[in-house]
Write the structure tokens for this entry.
Amino acid sequence: MNLVKSLILGSAAALVAVGGAQAADLPVKAKAVEYVKICSLYGPGFYYIPGTDTCIKLGGYLRADVLANTNSVAGPNYNGANGANNRFTNGYTWRSREDFNIDTRTATEYGVVRTYFDAVFTWTSDTYGANTAAPGATIYSPIGTASAPGNASSGNVAGGALGVYFAFIQFAGFTMGKSVSQFAAPWTAYPGNNFDGLVGGINTTTGVNQFSYTAQFGNGVSLSLSAQDQVAYGQAGTNNLSAGGAYGASDLAGSIAPDLIAALKVEQAWGLFQASFAAHDNHAAYYGATEVTGHPDDKWGWAGALALSIKNIPTGAGDVINIQGVYTDGATRYNIQDLASQAGAIAIYSGSNLPGAYGSVGFGTAPDTVFIAGGQQQLIQTWGFRGAYTHNWDPYWNTSIYGAYAAIMYNDTSKSYICGVGGVGGTFRTAFAGGAGVTACNPDYNLSQIGVITRWTPVKNLTFSADVTYSHLDQKYAGTITTSAASVGKPAAVYELKDQDTVMLLLRAQRNW
């Protein structure tokens, strides 16, 4: 009996052991895999972030630019080595860029929460710069002594530059962060062009810090109210004429008030209409180096603009006309945008047929205000427009004809500061040895631009373009001055004051993704 009992218990134990081993060998049930799902709520390209109700879209482009007759890739050839028109003016400048953007959206009980980030990685071929081994010398050297604008260091092929274009949150009608100005037309500075330097409106295509609210009224009608940072792109300068030089020097104080903007927009199937207004505080520093020298009072300037886009025109499918006009009073950057006038001034050199003249030069400067020690700020007025007509020849080719114009006007008080009274005195004449050869002194000027661009898109999202821009400076000075510009190789000599012309070519290859 004991033997039978032992056999039964032993068999049971063996069965339990075998059963346990078989159970341990079975696979454990896997957790559900979080597959990436298409998010159709916000258009093509959006996907749900796994494990969340947030949709994300990645995008960007890779671009290669080659520009002829300029040392700059982000503006016209109007001053410095660009405007020298000599051996320091580059025959070409090259830039390669990768753009990367992240767009996220989440549906909430208050509406969609959106974040948007856009960054660029850029390498620009170096330009010529002053010989750092001999400061002040007129000897120039190529790559190795001066870095191209925005590059980390000269001669560093692994360098380049990182830029942040946009970084903003949108929620319940609010936009908070770095985005295109609410004042700008939807095409910003590009009604039909690739050229960066069109006058006739604001730019901010690389974003400006703001706190904005947009109310939607239905049927495509909206109103935006915005407080916008004026420092990055909004300040053309409060020029202290007592600081020396023909136009003094910008004498900006610390930022104290943002620009205040209102924009009414009507966007429908036929196109778009927009009316924009901006108020801009001009906050100057001191007359001299310290507080005891005093300062001028603040002066508020303003700008107003109208923009119109007409679609479905009878010349062809997809053809469009974009136009806008602007007037400014002490808010110059809303017309002469930051890329339209490098360093806020124009100085273009060329030849001259005038006997005794070494060459010729044309000047143009457009600050927000000017003042002298002990005086108040004088606002500068401007008006301008820009526009383009784009025609699609077929699904692969299109051409745009574009143009822009800006007029800069100084009041009588400003002109007396700069040109003197009765042909005597003034900062302009004083800067050029008394200006004995100046027969007409007037700081007003006009700038006109016209261009044509043709694009070829052989396959979707791959475009090759050629963009040529002609510019004409209509300046109001006449006669001659004696001056030098050793920094760009110009000797001390007599130069004729005359209108100037310049042309620039931009070739681009771009792949969007």
In short: Residues 113 and 171 are 5 Å apart (CA to CA). The helical segments are 2-25, 80-84, 412-419, 427-431. Confidence is low (pLDDT under 50) at residues 1-24, 130-156.
